[in-house]
Design goal:
Elements lengths: L12 H12 L6 E5 L2 H11 L6 E5 L2 H8 L7 E5 L6 H11 L5 E6 L4 H11 L3 E4 L4 H13 L5 H4 L3 E7 L6 H16 L3 E5 L7 H5 L7 H6 L8 H5 E5 L2 E4 L13 H14 L2 E6 L5 H9 L2 E6 L3 H16 L5 E8 L7 H8 L5 E4 L2 H10 L3 H4 L1 H15 L14 H6 L2
Parallel strand pairs: 1-2, 1-3, 3-4, 4-5, 6-10, 6-11, 7-9, 7-10, 11-12, 12-13
Antiparallel strand pairs: 8-9
Helix pairs in contact: 2-6, 3-4, 8-18, 12-13
Length: 416
């Protein structure tokens, strides 16, 4: 598709026409990707697995893509890596000469630059640009909709990212991971983070952080019309300049009755104010709890190395799939605990390798919880494991790239 305007096509355009004729006589791959490093390839495979069928990943950059596609059919969707390429915009022009005009091109790079993003999307005409490091979540959230036509729930994607942390069963360390993940996200991303503890009777997040929960969360969840813009200031407890806790300690003679609308309203308010919302979730036994699971952009299922965890982790994964949410990461906690199953048996039971594996730090974490101190500060090895978990759900910022001023043939050919 040629972009409307006064630009005239350069002499190389017939090469694209030749590519189109060549393509019509051969089967097209649904997706072909060229990536330059092991980490990006692993994230791409994990993000596309069980979501996109028939994809192929090769090692290389846009330069390798140009060379390969000069002699083979154009795929329907093409992912190219521009990392380390001296003049990526010029090379994307060259790529346009060997591809058919109907290809959808996604670009991966190392620079997190809004001006670069706008130039690639608006002027060059690529479908999406994603900066490294890639994670499975970012691949599934940003690239899969472009590849497979998966619709994204705008209510889930608007504003801050909602990360649900749920235990496959009780006693697996869900709250410990939720609390420390929130702290890690605030420190690593420098974003504003809310920790929402939906265990209204027996929540322990406040105890672990050495604070007392404020009142008002139950009312907001039961009567969403009463949750206004000042709600966060009334019920949020400031942990540090980047993290707030929203929790409750309801007396045992009360029976809280959160509603789905209440969950939705509270999350909408939090999304407007925070970059990340980490939810410590109870089991999905009520309609309100189901709404919380449904609203999550990324579900972390925490398990320990035992048979019951394997069974219930799979059940939660199936629940998330039923909600149309493919962003599910299995977190194997306390690996190596006495009497626990070995990793090969766990992988066989799950049918895949857990995304994150955390060793057994029960002594250190128990001591930190009793002192009301974050475990991150008490156990450096645990902090390292949480850094990997934070990367799984957020990615990190990269260096910025100066804007170039090139109007490309790629934009004229592929921009609709």
């Amino acid at each position: 598709m040629l972009e409307n305007g006064s630009d005239t096509a350069p002499p190389q355009v017939p090469l694209a026409h030749v590519a189109q004729l060549r393509d019509s006589s051969q089967a097209r791959k649904p997706l072909l990707a060229f990536v330059a490093d092991d980490e990006s390839e692993a994230a791409l495979r994990a993000g596309l697995l069980d979501i996109v069928e028939g994809f192929e990943i090769r090692r290389g950059t846009v330069l390798h893509a140009i060379k390969c596609l000069a002699g083979e059919p154009t795929p329907r969707t093409l992912i190219v890596d521009i990392s380390g390429v001296a003049n990526p915009l010029y090379e994307l022009d060259n790529l346009a000469h060997v591809c058919t005009p109907d290809v959808s091109v996604l670009v991966i790079g190392v620079h997190n630059d809004l001006s670069l993003y706008r130039q690639l999307i608006r002027e060059v005409g690529v479908a999406e640009y994603v900066h490294k490091p890639l994670t499975r979540d970012r691949v599934a959230r940003l690239l899969v909709p472009q590849i497979a036509g998966v619709t994204v729930d705008t209510n889930v994607s608007r504003g801050g990212s909602v990360i649900a942390v749920s235990g496959a069963r009780g006693g697996v360390g869900t709250t410990t991971l939720a609390v420390n993940l929130a702290l890690q996200l605030a420190a690593a991303t420098r974003g504003h983070v809310a920790l929402l503890d939906l265990h209204l009777h027996y929540g322990t997040s406040a105890l672990m952080l050495g604070v007392k929960a404020a009142g008002g969360l139950r009312i907001a969840l039961e009567q969403p019309e009463r949750a206004d813009a000042l709600f966060l200031d009334r019920v949020g407890v400031e942990i540090n300049e980047r993290l707030r806790l929203i929790a409750a300690e309801e007396s045992l003679d009360r029976t809280p009755a959160p509603t789905p609308d209440g969950i939705r309203r509270v999350l909408d308010l939090l999304r407007q104010r925070f970059n990340y919302i980490v939810m410590d979730l109870p089991p999905p036994a009520t309609l309100a709890a189901m709404q919380a699971y449904r609203a999550a952009r990324h579900l972390l299922v925490v398990m320990t190395p035992d048979l019951a965890s394997i069974r219930d982790a799979e059940r939660l994964r199936q629940l998330a799939a039923g909600f149309g949410n493919p962003q599910v990461s299995i977190v194997l906690n306390r690996i190596g605990m006495p009497g626990g199953l070995k990793l090969p048996m766990i992988e066989q039971g799950l049918g895949s390798k857990p995304a994150i594996q955390i060793p057994d730090f029960s002594k250190q974490l128990g001591r930190a919880a009793n002192l009301g101190k974050p475990a991150l500060g008490e156990c450096p090895a645990f902090r390292k494991a949480l850094a990997l978990l934070a990367l799984e759900v957020s990615g990190t910022a990269a260096n910025r790239m100066p804007r170039a001023g090139v109007r490309s043939l790629f934009g004229r050919m592929f921009k609709s």
